[in-house]
Specification:
The complex is a heterodimer. By secondary structure, chain A is mostly helical. Chain A has helices at 2-27, 36-41, 47-54, 64-75, 81-84, 113-116, 119-128, 143-155. In chain A, α4 (64-75) crosses α8 (143-155) and α7 crosses α8. The N and C termini of chain A lie far apart (83 Å). Classes of the chains: A mainly alpha, B mainly beta.
Chain lengths: 165, 336
C-alpha cells in the first residue's frame, strides 16, 4: 500500500518536474560563461590536438639574437603591432575593432596567461590563427620566424612598457 | 654511354613538362581595369580565355567630404577599387600585392569565385607580399569583391571593395554609355561635417550609425555624362558594410534592372528604386529622354541629403517638350 502511494507520488512529481525542467531550459542560457580571465586562459587549440601541440618544442635556442629577430618581425613585416601594440600589451591602433581584445603579452595584470600557455600553443596560434581574429601566419612567415616570435613574446612577460617602445 | 643518353632524355622530358601550358598558367590577356566611374570595354571574344588580373592593396589619405580627410584602405588606390571585367568560362590567374607601405595584412574575397573564401585564404598577404590563385568564372553576373582579412568589417568599412563583372556568353544588350558606381557607408570619429583628419569609429560602425554614405568617394571626380536619346547602363554595387541601398535616380525610371546583378534571370522592367544589399549589386539600364541633371541617390533620403549619397548624371541635348516641359508659373499675379 505504502509502495503504491509512493509510486503514485513519484509519478505525479515526475509528470510536473520533467516538463518544468524543459520549460526552464528554454529560458536559461546553459552555454558555459567564462570570465575575462577564464576567456584569456581558455586553450585555443582544439581538445583533440592539445596534448600534441603543448609538447611541441622550439627548434631554435632562445637567445638575445632570437628575441631580437622576433622583435623585428613583431614590429616589422609581421605587423603584429597593429593589434598587439608597440608594447605587446594588446593595445594596438586597431585593437578596439575586435570583440575579443588582442592578447596582452606583458601579462602585467597577473592573469597568468604566460604561464598557462606552452611555447607550442603560442606557435600553433601564430601558425593557424584563432577564431577570435588572430590571422594564420603559416603561409606568410617561415617556421623559424614564427618560433622567433614565440621567443620575443615570452620576453614580454612583465615587461615595462617603455622598454619596448 | 647509355647512361649519358638516359640523362639527356630525362632532361628533355622534364623541359617538355615544365614548358607545357596547363590552361591555367598561360595568360592570353591581361584584364583591363578601370577606375570608377569608367567601365572596361565589353568583351566580344568567346569565353574560355586565360586572363591575368592583378590588384594592389594600399592605405592612402583622401577626402571623404569637403575638408574632411580620411585614410582609406583600398584596392588599387581608389574607392571603390578598380572594376574588373571577364567573360563566363574564362580561366583567371589572380594576383594580389600588398604595398610595402601598408600597415595591415589584406586579402580578397571575390563573389564571382567558386571556391573556399572566394580566394580570401589564398590571398592573405602581409605588407610587401604577393599572393595569388586560379579560378574559373563559372557564373555570369555582377559581383562584389572585398577584403576579408581580420577584422573583416573594419577593412570593408575603410573602403576595401569593388565590382567584377562576368559577361554572359552572348554579352549584355548594347547600350551607349556604361558607368561604374559603388555605395559605401563610413564611420568617422568626428560628427558629420567635422573638418580635419578623421579616424575610424568602430563603435559607430557596430551601431550601424554612419557619419557619411557615399558613391565612389575616392574615384575620378566629375559628373557622369550622356546625351539625350542615349541608353545608359549603371553597374551599381554596395560595399556596405552595413546599409542596404534604395538606389534611385531622381527624374528617371529604370527601363530594365538586373536585380541583385543576376544576369541570366529575367530582368525587371520600369523600376523606380532598386534595393542593393551590402555585398550585392544591380545593373540598371535607362534611356535618357530629356536634358538636365539627374541625381543619383540612396532614397533612404537622409543618407543622400545629409550624409552625401549623391551623384550627378548630366544629360545634354535639346529640350523634348512632348515628354517634359516646365509650365509658366507666376508670382502674385498668377491667379492665387
Amino acid at each position: 500500500m505504502i509502495t503504491k502511494t509512493w509510486t503514485r507520488r513519484a509519478f505525479i512529481t515526475a509528470l510536473v518536474a520533467i516538463p518544468l525542467f524543459f520549460l526552464i531550459l528554454q529560458y536559461v542560457d546553459i552555454t558555459p560563461v567564462y570570465s575575462a580571465d577564464e576567456q584569456a586562459l581558455k586553450p585555443r587549440v582544439p581538445a583533440d590536438k592539445l596534448a600534441e601541440v603543448q609538447s611541441l618544442k622550439s627548434p631554435i635556442v632562445a637567445s638575445e639574437k632570437t628575441i631580437s629577430t622576433g622583435k623585428a618581425i613583431f614590429h616589422g613585416k609581421g605587423v603584429c603591432v597593429n593589434c598587439h601594440g608597440e608594447a605587446g600589451n594588446g593595445k594596438g591602433p586597431i585593437a578596439n575593432s575586435f570583440d575579443h581584445h588582442p592578447r596582452d603579452f606583458t601579462d602585467t595584470d597577473d592573469i597568468g596567461w604566460q604561464k598557462a600557455r606552452t611555447d607550442g600553443e603560442i606557435f600553433w596560434a601564430i601558425s593557424k590563427g584563432t577564431e577570435y581574429g588572430m590571422i594564420p601566419y603559416e603561409d606568410m612567415l617561415s617556421e623559424d620566424e614564427r618560433w622567433a616570435l614565440v621567443a620575443y613574446i615570452r620576453s614580454l612577460e612583465n615587461s615595462v612598457v617603455a622598454n619596448h617602445k | 654511354m647509355a647512361k649519358k643518353y638516359f640523362f639527356g632524355v630525362m632532361l628533355l622530358i622534364g623541359a617538355m613538362i615544365i614548358g607545357t601550358p596547363t590552361g591555367s598558367d598561360a595568360a592570353d590577356e591581361v584584364a583591363k581595369l578601370t577606375t570608377a566611374p569608367e567601365v572596361p570595354p565589353a568583351i566580344t571574344r568567346p569565353g574560355g580565355a586565360n586572363v591575368t588580373v592583378e590588384l594592389e592593396t594600399t592605405e592612402v589619405k583622401g577626402q571623404l567630404a569637403d575638408g574632411v580627410e580620411y585614410t582609406y584602405w583600398t584596392f588599387g588606390g581608389t574607392v571603390p577599387g578598380p572594376m574588373i571585367r571577364v567573360k563566363v568560362g574564362d580561366n583567371i590567374t589572380f594576383t594580389l600585392k600588398n604595398s610595402d607601405a601598408s600597415k595591415n595584412p589584406h586579402s580578397i574575397d571575390l563573389h564571382a569565385v567558386t571556391g573556399p573564401g572566394g580566394g580570401a585564404k589564398a590571398t592573405l598577404t602581409l605588407p610587401g607580399g604577393k599572393t595569388g590563385f586560379f579560378f574559373k568564372a563559372l557564373n555570369p553576373g555582377l559581383y562584389v569583391y572585398h577584403c576579408a582579412a581580420p577584422h573583416i568589417p573594419t577593412h570593408i568599412a575603410n573602403g576595401m571593395y569593388g565590382l567584377i563583372l562576368v559577361d554572359p556568353e552572348k554579352g549584355l544588350p548594347k547600350v551607349d554609355k556604361e558607368y561604374y558606381i559603388v555605395q559605401g557607408d563610413f564611420y568617422t570619429t568626428g560628427n558629420t561635417g567635422e573638418k580635419g583628419a578623421q579616424g575610424f569609429s568602430v563603435e559607430k560602425a557596430r551601431a550601424e550609425q554612419p557619419t557619411y554614405v557615399k558613391f565612389n568617394p575616392m574615384a575620378t571626380p566629375g559628373n557622369l555624362k550622356a546625351k539625350v536619346g542615349e541608353k545608359v547602363r549603371l553597374y551599381v554595387g554596395n560595399g556596405g558594410p552595413n546599409l542596404t541601398s534604395a538606389f534611385h535616380v531622381i527624374g528617371e525610371i529604370f527601363d530594365t534592372v538586373y536585380q541583385l546583378g543576376a544576369v541570366g534571370s529575367d530582368p525587371a522592367k520600369n523600376v523606380q528604386t532598386t534595393l542593393i544589399p551590402p555585398g550585392g549589386a544591380a545593373i540598371v539600364d535607362f534611356k535618357v529622354d530629356v536634358p538636365g541633371n539627374y541625381i543619383l541617390v540612396d532614397h533612404a533620403i537622409f543618407r543622400a541629403i545629409d550624409k552625401g549619397a549623391v551623384g550627378i548624371l548630366e544629360v545634354a541635348g535639346p529640350d523634348v517638350p512632348n515628354v517634359f516641359k516646365p509650365l509658366k508659373t507666376g508670382g502674385a499675379d498668377a491667379g492665387h
